[in-house]
Amino acid sequence: xxxxxxxxxxxxxxxxxxxxxxxxxxxxxxxxxxxxxxxxxxxxxxxxxxxxxxxxxxxxxxxxxxxxxxxxxxxxxxxxxxxxxxxxxxxxxxxxxxxxxxxxxxxxxxxxxxxxxxxxxxxxxxxxxxxxxxxxxxxxxxxxxxxxxxxxxxxxxxxxxxxxxxxxxxxxxxxxxxxxxxxxxxxxxxxxxxxxxxxxxxxxxxxxxxxxxxxxxxxxxxxxxxxxxxxxxxxxxxxxxxxxxxxxxxxxxxxxxxxxxxxxxxxxxxxxxxxxxxxxxxxxxxxxxxxxxxxxxxxxxxxxxxxxxxxxxxxxxxxxxxxxxxxxxxxxxxxxxxxxxxxxxxxxxxxxxxxxxxxxxxxxxxxxxxxxxxxxxxxxxxxxxxxxxxxxxxxxxxxxxxxxxxxxxxxxxxxxxxxxxxxxxxxxxxxxxxxxxxxxxxxxxxxxxxxxxxxxxxxxxxxxxxxxxxxxxx
Length: 474
Ligand code: 5AD
Ligand code: SF4
Prior knowledge:
- By secondary structure, the protein is an alpha/beta fold.
- The chain has 15 helices and 21 strands.
- The strands form 6 sheets. It has a 6-stranded parallel sheet, sandwiched between helices. It has a 5-stranded mixed β-barrel with strand order 17-18-19-21-20. Strands 7-10-13 form a 3-stranded parallel sheet, with helices on both faces.
- A hairpin with a 4-residue loop joins strand 20 and strand 21 (460-464).
- The longest helix has 24 residues, at 381-404.
- 46% of the residues are buried.
- Residues 1-26 and 469-474 have low confidence and may be disordered.
């Protein structure tokens, strides 16, 4: 699963709104501002909404005050998500008061979950749309312009939204490609099966066609997205049922594609072929986000995860057998209802056993409509805080150790942009660590071997390798 592991993400909103303006033509010029919260899936969805609206003449602008349409693309996974939406809408309301023609839309999981409640509490909102409906945005915009009340589209339509969205306009060096949506796992704590609907996979030929297009447009890395991405399955176009391992092998044969990643996975869906792909496909990065949530079998059962802590340990062993330099990332929840001190200790023990290069940890927070929200034996807030702090201290230490261990090593970095300081370029190591280095902008869009000079808690500093002729003189 992929839902929000970032706080409300202004950087993501900037990315979404920073696309190039469309070519000059006779279309009316309209200005669009998209605010994106949450996960990579939401960032991707925002880009797609922008693509869907481009034919209507909408071009991105950086400030909501300058826009003719404002979309708030929300995420429901974290605490108080709905309240954050209402407070953001309160902040935006003066724009509508000053210019009543501006169209306001709320998209994403909060829109799906709250629907009419949004319009009841923020009547100036024109469109409320669930994640499965974005291809119908132009029609909703037209209806909003005519309608007296808000347009609310939160049904899961029988048709697939994959079939309707236009292909991405301006692919990035690292491009997202949604291949799967929804989830049937029904973990006790999670809203995704209710907000994103049942699992659906995009057909292999469509995925491969879009991947080729992304690479032709300059993408060097493709990040395969899905709430439960390794549940992806599909017909290969020749009548054979395939899983994610096969899809990755097919993608790896696209010339010019240097890196493949996928996120987010479920331990139950790591099949033999996918594990073998980690051994066989060099372009598949040696990094895997594999949420475990807890290290206690009691809690894992209460969470309806369908696996034990030892199953996870064995799985990681097999993955590392296939790809010895594999680094892992995970999600952990502290204080699920019923979690005891012994369960918490079991989680710390699992973290110590695995050794994560990166992780996201959350204090359990009840989501209305989920089984855990009404489960007995809730854990006291203060206790959840303490457990989360212990978990985070351990994870921080592991991440720091992992980064420091890179010092002095030569690693390949895919450079994707400029760094924070003048003259810097920035990119990612194969293990997803952000890397910055003083170097020429011509490196952007390429993968280059560099030497890591320092491992920081959250990033790596690098220097260019000496040129071959310098080496010869040495
Ligand atoms: N409380 C706390 N964390 C949650 N997550 C999902 N739902 C909840 C919740 N109700 C976390 C899980 C998931 C990540 C994206 O968010 O760890 O993997
Ligand atoms: Fe991930 Fe479980 Fe939520 Fe599905 S129900 S998205 S597997 S946490």
